Amino acid sequence: MAAVDDLSFDPWDPAFVADPYPAYAELRERGRVIYFEPTNQWLVPRHADVSALLRDRRLGRTYQHRFTHEDFGRTAPPTEQEPFHTLNDHGMLDLEPPDHTRIRRLVSKAFTPRTVEGLKPYVRRLAAELVDGLVRQGGGDLLLDVAEPLPVAVIAEMLGIPESDRAPLRPWSADICGMYELNPPQETAERAVRASVEFSDYLRELIAARRKEPGEDLMSGLIAAHDEGDRLTEQELISTAVLLLNAGHEATVNATVNGWWTLLRHPEQLAALRADHSLVPSAVEELMRFDTPLQLFERWVLDDIEIDGTVVPRGAEVAMLFGSANHDPAVFAEPERLDLARADNPHISFSAGIHYCIGAPLARIELAASMTALLERAPTLALAAEPRRKPNFVIRGLEGLPVTV
């Protein structure tokens, strides 16, 4: 078993968060599984192990389908955090079979490939309008002016949330997602609880309205979805909508700004992309690999597992390092080199196994649409000032990205 006392892995250090990749290389050299005492987690840095463990049924996003907190050697969350955990624990991302299987099957009935494909014209039109606005004002903040409003509008439009109600969605999402960081402080938990209550109350009203007057939107489809008489409960509807909203834009926003910040620091690759827009699909994949917005994904060990001779016991928590796996030289040739034409690119930025991101096709459509619109309508886009990075490590992004056009 390796230890990390002498390594530079420090998820609370701004310098590490700004560039974790050298520390990941150290971890991969050190071993396949490394115990990290500050978070009481086992770090898994290599691609083959991360990929295998994401599919291993001896691990789970929850343990409560098999064990009580006491049986599992864990302490129940504080009672004052109950609104957050009720919301979070009924979403399919944090459930295991059979509940996960049932909910994902029902959600898939409404969130179909045809539905997503049908959004393409709307997404492209909206991306073009947002970029035109950026150009008219001579530049601005790529995050606030393009990256953020696009996926928020798309998922809100899908769910049937009126435009007049959308302003709180991003703040609610940011406050809830703060709880996914490592060892979140008390004030983060308080914000997450408040956002969980307000978001849930809003969606409860929206669901009641859609039950009375169904529309063509995804929320109406989720309400109507049934399988042999089985339907989503109201809490499952609320948790699913929040998950789709949070995951549906949080990752896409960060992928967009991380991607453009990467491009602006690799002018030769940006020039190649500007010269050949057919590179957009592979560029989206390579930028997701090169600087993924989700750096770490956690699983509970439900039954003892052995990794490279080290037994990770039941009750432990495994932290799979997506950012490290995506830079593993055993899988990616010259992983530290940005190659927008990279053909063999099995990155795991959308996870794998039963929790593979259900919104991955939509995210790819949004990322390609905004990239294409910026290439076509803002061909001289350039950095206006050095961006500031958010302190978050798990969901990693920038405070903003100031640009000129």
List the helices and strands and how they pair.
Blueprint: H1 14-18, H2 21-30, E1 34-36, E2 41-44, H3 47-54, E3 59-60, H4 82-89, H5 99-110, H6 113-118, H7 120-136, E4 139-141, H8 142-147, H9 149-159, H10 169-177, H11 186-212, H12 218-224, E5 226-227, E6 230-231, H13 234-264, H14 267-275, H15 280-290, E7 296-301, E8 305-307, E9 310-312, E10 317-321, H16 322-325, H17 360-377, E11 382-383, E12 402-404
Parallel strand pairs: 2-10
Antiparallel strand pairs: 1-2, 3-7, 4-12, 5-6, 7-10, 8-9, 11-12
Would you summarize the structure shown here?
The protein has 405 residues and is of the alpha+beta class. The chain has helices at residues 14-18, 21-30, 47-54, 82-89, 99-110, 113-118, 120-136, 142-147, 149-159, 169-177, 186-212, 218-224, 234-264, 267-275, 280-290, 322-325, 360-377, and strands at residues 34-36, 41-44, 59-60, 139-141, 226-227, 230-231, 296-301, 305-307, 310-312, 317-321, 382-383, 402-404. The mean pLDDT is 93.
Q: If you had to describe this structure to a student in words, what would you say it looks like?
A:
- By secondary structure, the protein is of the alpha+beta class.
- It folds into 2 domains: 1-44, no CATH class; 46-304 and 329-404, Orthogonal Bundle (Cytochrome p450), CATH 1.10.630.10.
- Helices cover 49% and strands 9% of the residues.
- It has helices at residues 14-18, 21-30, 47-54, 82-89, 99-110, 113-118, 120-136, 142-147, 149-159, 169-177, 186-212, 218-224, 234-264, 267-275, 280-290, 322-325, 360-377, and strands at residues 34-36, 41-44, 59-60, 139-141, 226-227, 230-231, 296-301, 305-307, 310-312, 317-321, 382-383, 402-404.
- β8 (305-307) and β9 form a beta hairpin.
- The chain is globular, with a radius of gyration of 21 Å.
- The protein starts with 13 loop residues before the first helix and ends with a strand.
